[in-house]
Structures are given as structure tokens and as C-alpha cells.
Design a protein that fits this description.
Elements (H helix, E strand, L loop, with lengths): L1 H16 L8 H31 L6 H28 L5 H37 L13 H19 L6 E3 L5 E3 L6 H42 L6 H34 L1 H7 L5 H6 L1 H19 L1 H8 L1 H15 L3 H6 L12 H20 L14
Antiparallel strand pairs: 1-2
Helix pairs in contact: 2-3, 2-10, 2-11, 3-4, 3-5, 3-10, 4-5, 4-6, 4-7, 6-7, 7-10, 11-14, 12-14
């Protein structure tokens, strides 16, 4: 009993004096200690494989794969930062080094990656909408070229990195290495900044994504009407494009749905934003609110699902992607054991993949098989290929 009381006072004192440390609850242990790290682990593996697979598909000159590659890369980083933050809330909450890494590195980095993923998704929908307007033609707009898509993603990354720099200065350490709010966090400038970031990178993208999906649906309806009237005169390539556009709209609706239920609420209830958005600057209320903490746990799980869903979506909606993964796994299985032992990580395998990469892919074969069969009971989707 004495040990329990000492532990209680130890927890209570740390929770009282450290702004970032909150006493773990049973629900917190389950969510942050098991659910979120497991989801992020599979998500990191899936996104890593997705980046490798999509990088090998760059010979297909379509911006579709460029956006998917950068989105998978961003979500790979988000899986790592979210898993680190989750573990620091329960398992490593007594380790100052992990807490400081979470507060001063993972928090700003995760915000930047979240905003970048949102911007890439929005640009991707604009790209597909412009392409659908030329669905009957065999040419595509310059905006939909792979080089343009790469430049757009790099430009967005630069802009969002600059906008996210103030997140590195909202907390600071005192003389006892305890995290506390900085002067910037308590200033009116920070309140204006938080509202600007929330509206610009959460509310506004959600509205634009909804409008974009609506426009895509309207364009699809017009295309299907055109198909019914001119079906006999249209070439097979045009008909295939129309069918692919129909399937792509369903996949984009899935992406937007995951964003709406995960990213937007998590931004609103996070500690660094809820202080000003909900509690009008009351730091203690933002930290102690139990309903807010439960909502934060729920949105954290949804965010983990959001950033971890790329691999199942690609396997389900992109047959070419699934075929490449299956081909690589089957090819690795056919290798002689002697060749697998001789080939090390330092020597690149055929087509630029390392032996360790093939081992990760072989582990993912079960994921591919199960995901394609059971993940989403919707129409099989394929990406859009537009001839130059």
C-alpha cells in the first residue's frame, strides 16, 4: 500500500507540474499502448512498400502515381510520429528524453506531415477533375503531367514547412527540464496563428474536398450520359477511360471520408489547438478535460487508420500496383536458398531492390491477399492512365 501511495503521489506531482505529461488511464493504455502502435506498425510497413512499388512504376508517365507516391511517403512519416507520440503517452511517459522528443520534434513534424498530406490529396482531386474534362480526348492537360505533379508536391512541402515553423516554439523547458508553455503560446499572435492554420489547412481543405468530389460526381454523370448516347461511335480506349473514371470517383470518396472523420476532428481537439479554439486560452482546462481526452483518443485512432490505409487502398483500387507486389513476392519465393543467403543488404538486387526489401514484401503478401478480399466491399477500382 505504501508503494502504491508513493507511486500515486509521484504520478500526481509529475502530472501537475509538467504541461505535457498526463496521468495514463486504462483506456489510454489500451489505445496509446496497443491499438495505435499496432495500426501504425502495419501502416508504416504498407506505406514503405507502397513507396518502393510506386517508385518502380514511374515509367508510366502519369501524375496519378506521383501523387500516390508522395502521399504514401508522407503517411509513412506520419505513422512513425504518431506511434512515437502514442507510446510516449503511456509506456515512456516517465522518460524525459522521449517526452521531449515527442513535444519538440514529433508534434511539429506530425503537423507538417498532416497538412502536407491534406494539400496533396486536394491537388490530386484537382488533377483528376481536369483530366476528366478531357476524357474523350487522347491528350491530357499540362497540369496532369508527372513533372508538374512532382514540382507541385515539392513546392507544397516547402510552403507548409515554413508555415509550421512556429509549432517548434510553443513549448519550452524551464530550469528543472519541465515542459511549460512559452510566451509565444500565451500571446495573441499564437491565437491568430492557430485560427489561421486551422481554417487554412483543416476547414478550408475539407470544404474544397467536398466540392471537388461533388464536381467529379457531376462530371462522371455527364460522361456516363455521353457514353449511353455515343457508345457505338466511341473507341474502346475512351470507353475504358470512362469506366476507370467511374471507379476512381469511388476511391476518392473513400479518401475524403477518412480525412473528414479523422484529420479535421483531431486538429480541433489537440492540446495545442483546443486551448485556444475551445477553452479560450485556459491551459489547465485543456489539459484536465476528460471528455476532451476521450475524444482525443478516438480521433487519434481514426488518424492512425487514415495514414495507414494507403496500402490496402492501393491493393484494392490499383490492379497494376497489386500485380507488381504479387510478382515481386512470387519471384522472391522462386529464388534458390543459396542465392538468398549469398545476397546481402549491401548488394542491390535486380531492379534496384535489396534483399531486406524483398523480405518485407514477402511478409506483406498475406496482407495483400486478405486486404484485396475483405478490406472494402466496393467495386474494384483502377487508376487513370492517360496517354501523353
Amino acid at each position: 500500500m505504501m508503494l502504491d501511495e508513493e507511486l500515486f503521489h509521484k504520478i500526481k506531482n509529475k502530472s501537475d507540474f509538467n504541461l505535457w505529461v498526463i496521468e495514463p488511464t486504462l483506456i489510454g493504455w489500451i489505445a496509446y499502448g496497443a491499438v495505435i502502435p499496432i495500426i501504425c506498425l502495419f501502416g508504416a510497413i504498407g506505406n514503405f512498400i507502397s513507396v518502393l512499388m510506386l517508385h518502380k512504376m514511374t515509367q508510366i508517365k502519369d501524375s496519378f502515381f506521383v501523387y500516390l507516391k508522395y502521399l504514401a511517403l508522407v503517411n509513412f512519416g506520419s505513422c512513425i510520429t504518431q506511434a512515437t507520440s502514442a507510446l510516449s503517452n503511456v509506456i515512456f511517459w516517465d522518460f524525459k528524453i522521449v517526452i521531449n522528443i515527442d513535444c519538440f520534434i514529433c508534434l511539429p513534424l506530425n503537423n507538417m506531415l498532416t497538412y502536407l498530406g491534406t494539400a496533396i490529396s486536394l491537388t490530386f482531386i484537382i488533377d483528376r477533375y481536369l483530366l476528366m474534362r478531357r476524357v474523350v480526348r487522347l491528350t491530357k492537360p499540362k497540369f496532369c503531367e508527372s513533372k508538374v505533379a512532382t514540382n507541385i508536391c515539392l513546392t507544397l512541402a516547402t510552403i507548409i514547412f515554413i508555415c509550421s515553423i512556429p509549432f517548434y516554439f510553443i513549448y519550452e523547458l524551464d530550469e528543472n527540464n519541465i515542459i511549460k508553455a512559452s510566451k509565444f503560446f500565451k500571446s495573441k499572435t499564437y491565437t491568430v496563428y492557430i485560427w489561421f492554420m486551422f481554417i487554412t489547412f483543416s476547414v478550408q481543405p475539407a470544404m474544397l474536398l467536398t466540392v471537388g468530389i461533388t464536381l467529379l460526381t457531376i462530371s462522371l454523370k455527364k460522361i456516363m450520359q455521353m457514353k449511353s448516347k455515343c457508345c457505338q461511335r466511341m473507341s474502346k480506349e475512351s470507353l475504358n477511360k470512362q469506366e476507370q473514371h467511374k471507379k476512381l470517383v469511388i476511391s476518392l470518396i473513400t479518401i475524403v471520408f477518412l480525412f473528414m472523420i479523422g484529420v479535421v476532428p483531431s486538429q480541433a481537439v489537440s492540446r495545442y489547438m483546443a486551448t485556444n479554439l475551445i477553452f479560450f486560452g485556459d491551459i489547465e482546462m485543456a489539459k484536465r478535460s476528460k471528455p476532451l481526452e476521450l475524444l482525443r483518443i478516438l480521433t487519434s485512432i481514426l488518424c492512425a487508420i487514415n495514414v495507414s490505409s494507403n496500402f490496402p487502398l492501393f491493393c484494392r483500387f490499383c490492379p497494376q500496383f497489386a500485380e507488381i507486389v504479387k510478382y515481386k513476392v512470387e519471384r522472391y519465393k522462386k529464388w534458390p536458398r543459396s542465392r538468398k543467403r549469398q545476397c546481402g543488404n549491401s548488394k542491390c538486387l535486380e531492379e534496384g531492390f535489396c534483399n531486406c526489401t524483398f523480405l518485407v514484401q514477402s511478409l506483406s503478401s498475406v496482407l495483400v491477399a486478405n486486404t484485396v478480399k475483405t478490406s472494402f466491399s466496393v467495386v474494384r477500382l483502377t487508376p487513370i492512365f492517360s496517354e501523353s
